[in-house]
From TrEMBL, chains A, B:
The keyword Transferase applies. Belongs to the FPP/GGPP synthase family. PANTHER family: FARNESYL DIPHOSPHATE SYNTHASE. It holds the Pfam family polyprenyl_synt. The lineage of its organism: Bacteria, Pseudomonadati, Pseudomonadota, Alphaproteobacteria, Rhodobacterales. This is Polyprenyl synthetase family protein.
Length: 287, 287
């Protein structure tokens, strides 16, 4: 991690966490469970929102609502994905998953209200004059033709007779994780009413690089460092970028994508340096 | 059911169903499961949206998005509420619950994407210039301080040492079912940028009357007609309006509330007649 990116990421984490404490007072068990689900992540999506907003001179008060909103959507998807009827995971971000810490009903409801809360945040006055296109884009990215459809494809793949092809895995991951990363990186442009295309190209390469790195971590990583179970996909015989491209092939594809992501930021000149660092970080992270 | 209300309700059901078929093409299993969850309900909430929009001369194209949106939120809450880890129900609207028809993972994800879809619909251009306050109000009504908090209270009540008091049940139900009914009835005024207060008073009385009627149905109803299991609450020893007020007391309270709901519509004159009929229907329904 370069010093510039490391500082920007940890600043983003601190700002989003402070904002979370203000917007989500721990009034009762439900609020507490929601806050639990939000804590301990890298907040890469929230960072992308804040950084793309900075590139477009968007007021930080607007960007913070959007950054917290996307972290809520991401956290809700993890809580539901970890449920016994889905991936049945016990560990997330180094802590017990929400249904292990409390119970399944609390996990279902905390996930549900994290999603609602994301839209509540985006409908706040602070978001400014371009809230509606941002809300529309989030609903499209997170819903039946975006993230959730990717999760459905993922479940179907588990019981499929033949492993997925590279094209199918790429589609699956573009929906499951790519859509939210794309929304995050485009958020700054959308909040400013500007053209999100350069950031979209950046994010599409970044999102795929991120997922390839995830598959590499599943093979090379250590559960204690990664903060969740590893080798689950490999042991289950699931097709991954590593099983399809080989370990070295996957690493060099991730490198190419990180380079592609950097090139997409050319219109931003030197101001895009931190986002370029983020692309390098994504393929070299150990958790 | 009076002829005027019966006609208005069945017209609303037909219009919302047609709109649903257009907005939710059955592209894959996820879309199919979402549509399954939406079908077969009374669409009382959608009716309230269309009828309140009519009172405020809101274009029907706008009202239909809002009507379908609230039916999506209601359907998602039922799908998740029926899960084994929650109420564990096998029957809903006379059909197998979604996790019985398919499986739990599909039920979790179909519910999740129904919620997302509701916000996607409300962010459409058709909704017009007052979409944002409508979205904000829905997120508040459905989330951590609204419907989901009511569900949490309901779960907590099941393991509580003493049954809830009348005040506690009233609070629980105002959140669990009242908030969405209130949003629905106020939607027409909000879409028009008008004052929703008369409709709010109507809806608050209507929502409570609706829930008292539900508790009466749980005692007096027949599962085949009601379309879901009955006597669950009574058999579980849960406090209900009937256990707290007695059957006759509950019936006369429901009557008073229906009258109160009607009185709240006085500012609308004769135009409010169909909504007054709806209040009478709510306390006399058999399903």
């Amino acid at each position: 991690m370069t010093a510039g990116f490391a500082a920007a990421l940890s600043q983003a984490q601190a700002k989003i966490s402070t904002h979370m404490d203000m917007r989500l007072p721990q009034a009762d068990l439900l609020h507490e469970a929601m806050a639990y689900a939000l804590r301990g992540g890298k907040m890469l999506r929230g960072f992308l929102v804040l950084e793309s907003a900075r590139l477009h001179d968007v007021p930080e008060a607007a960007a913070l609502e959007a950054a917290l909103a996307i972290e809520c959507i991401h956290a809700y998807s993890l809580v539901h994905d970890d449920l016994p009827s889905m991936d049945d995971d016990d560990l997330r971000r180094g802590q017990p998953t929400l249904h292990r810490k409390w119970d399944e009903a609390t996990a279902v409801l905390a996930g549900d209200s994290l999603q609602t809360f994301a839209f509540e945040l985006l409908a706040r006055d602070e978001v400014g004059p371009h809230a509606l296109p941002l809300i529309r884009a989030l609903a499209q990215a997170a819903g039946k033709d975006g993230m959730v459809s990717g999760q459905m494809l993922d479940i179907a793949a588990e019981s499929a007779a033949t492993p997925l092809t590279l094209d199918q895995i790429t589609t699956l991951q573009a929906r499951k994780t790519g859509c939210l990363i794309e929304w995050s990186a485009c958020a700054g442009a959308r909040l400013a009413g500007a053209n999100p295309e350069p950031l979209r190209h950046y994010a599409q390469a970044l999102g795929l690089a991120f997922q390839i790195a995830d598959d590499i971590l599943d093979i090379e990583g250590d559960a204690a460092t990664v903060g969740k179970a590893v080798r689950k996909d490999a042991d289950a015989g699931k097709a991954t970028f590593v099983s399809l491209l080989g370990l070295e092939g996957a690493k060099s594809r991730a490198q190419e994508l990180a380079q592609l992501a950097s090139t997409a930021l050319t219109p931003y000149g030197a101001a895009g340096e931190t986002l370029k660092d983020a692309a390098r970080f994504v393929i070299s992270r150990d958790s």
